[in-house]
Amino acid sequence: MSSVRKVTEDLYWVGVNDKRLHLFENIHPIPRGVSYNSYLLLDEKTVLFDTVDWSGCREYLKNVKEVLNGRDLDYLLINHMEPDHAASMEEVLLRYPKCKVISNEKAFMFMHQFGFELGDRKIEVKEGDTFSFGKHNVAFVFAQMVHWPEAMVTFDTTNGVLFSADAFGSFGSLDGKLFDDEVNFDRDWIDDARRYFCNIVGKYGAFVQYLLKKASTVPIKMFCPLHGPVWRSDLGYYIDKHDKWSRYEPEEKGVLILYASMYGNTEAAAQALASRLCDKGMTNVAVYDVSNTHVSYLVAEAFKYSHIVLASCTYNLQVYPVMYDFLHHLKILNFQKRTFGIMENGTWAIKSGTLMKEFIDEELKECLVLDAQVSVNSSMNESSATELENLADALIASVKK
Questions:
Q1: Which residue in 391, 317, 306 sits closest to 355, CA to CA?
Q2: How far apart are alpha carbons 156 and 328 in whole angstroms?
Q3: pTM for this entry
Q4: Residue 292 Cα distances to 221, 297, 370, 398, angstroms
């Protein structure tokens, strides 16, 4: 007995779940684990779509063998060569020596770099090529930089399934629930999906937009991504999320307050601002301690909200290091189109506010910094309290625009 699930007629999920891995790509926390999705098509020819991470190879090979049920494997189709999806391909090819590998030129180059020598087992495809496995016919659509340059997606024109590689994926172990309509996505999955997209693919928004335009030209009925649930019920909902994320448009009008505090005084000012906002009717407010929250969560929240307040103490005449690290992540992820508020603190030389504003103006695109600013000299006083009220009013006025 295995965890194999039938996706649709002739198609099976043969992937694995990994709840032991703590850091995705050895950087992003995944407390709910992650799935490595692979799909097996049983037609006149048998086709395996991508493989799984090496950590799940043993279970994966059992799944493949169970679904094949004595049949040989004719083709292994590789949409994406990243090791969490391609590391098991050598084991697959050893067990099925007649299997041919279908992929594109750049992917084959990457296979060579990873040490896979395929000889005459390669079938190279190009953008727009088609291939028949019997009843099922597929077309290949290149998805460069979503999020590697060799990535492509494969569209089954027979049943409307899009094998979407790393597009439309999510963190989180499936735990038996394969489909989007088997879970409460807004409650249990959207935060992981957002964090996955923003941190893994977020830099390449323009390329995602290009892929979305391509996808809009074909009658897709189902997304089969390489991580997370298979989408079969409300594709428009998920497409809209990815459209917003890849255009760097906020999902919600609200205020995200991020504070970096050494001894609690900057934290107290940030919490006071949150209280003033709520007093004035702006309750869509989220507050995070940058020192105690992994930056991947902060990035995802920044993609979610329309307005961001940065509250940082001054450290060695610079922005507090964890706050600067957050700003650096925004820069490398091409983050843009937000309104910022600034709160600074210091005892003998207050510099963090000026430096954060300079960073936003010089390194982030299409971002506005509000004129209202809070400057705390060690701890809140009447002067900084007045500035805080002004910042709260400015944020609310800006959110309402």
A1: 317
A2: 40
A3: 0.95
A4: 41, 11, 26, 29
